[in-house]
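Attaching the record inline, Q. Sequence:
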Amino acid sequence: MFRKSRTKIVLVFLIVVLLYNEYIVYSLKRWFTWPTIRCDNPSKCLKILLVADPQILGEQYEAHFPRGFLARWDSDRYLEKTFQRAVYHVDPNVIVFLGDIMDEGSISTNEEYRRYLERFHDVFQVHQNVKYIFLPGDNDIGGETEPLSVKKLERFQETFKQPDVIQFQHVEMYKVNRLAYTIPRSESNQRLSQGNKTRIILSHLPLLFVPSGFVQQAVTQIRPHVIFTAHDHKSLHISAETETGEERLAEMLPPGAGPVWHFQLGGGLVHELVVPTCSYRMGVADMGYGAAVIDGNSDTMLYAVLWLPSRFTQLYVYVITLAIACMIIILTLCQHLCSKIKHKLRRITSNTKHWSSV
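Structure, as predicted:
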């Protein structure tokens, strides 16, 4: 009876840990630490969800079975669960993927690329009435550790067919590619001083944080109000002069239950927000999604990071839990075995005494 009771306790403990790690912890994070940001006037409110460096794991670096299979499976599940909750929480009009969509896109064969793309669409399932924007990163087309080639860039552009300038409501979004040194142009570039649109630069590589002639050209040509970038896997804010691109302020946006950051757009300053990675496999302790709301009435932007639970902590909890469960099971089996041995010894001793008396 005691043995069965102990087995039930172990089983219930394992189920509770499983439910907490796989479901409850994500809901608690969303309920208690993710801030809610919204506009006073929904008619001129643009809600943006920013996804940085998801880096769908590939098959070359994670090749060995079953470790590679389990790593890809667990990483995909983590991305899918967190993304779905982020979409539900923000209810975005636009979802922007800021590059490094695949971890091995720049070195993959066409067949591997097709498989990675299928997994990407399975993880980040398309939601109706939401506009998607895709940027290439160095892991998608090269440009950092692998050389950038026209063939890789064309493959990405063929996969995600979009213009480089996208308009949505009162906002214009410009895809600046620092890897290929391209700056898009539109008719509104010629009449920026007369327009009343909010201009956003989207770039995989940070711009203001690493100034150059190319960055200055992009800033002075587009004169953006906001820049969203990725690549560094950290959460940063940089502000600079709109006219020159000269940096005025650089600061870390700390992880945790973090505040909602309020930015006044215009006024001669451009704000760059570097969005942290959403993948737990990128070698950083803190992951998250960026959430921005642009209010066209007041020319303000609210920004927050939806910080995610640590998957490695969950995996460590699994290891400790299984170790404890195994110890309890082994102890129970040892006690059971000792009990049987003692019972046999008593029978042998009892029979010996009986025959001695005869």
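DSSP finds seven helices and 13 strands in the chain. The mean pLDDT is 87.

More tomorrow.
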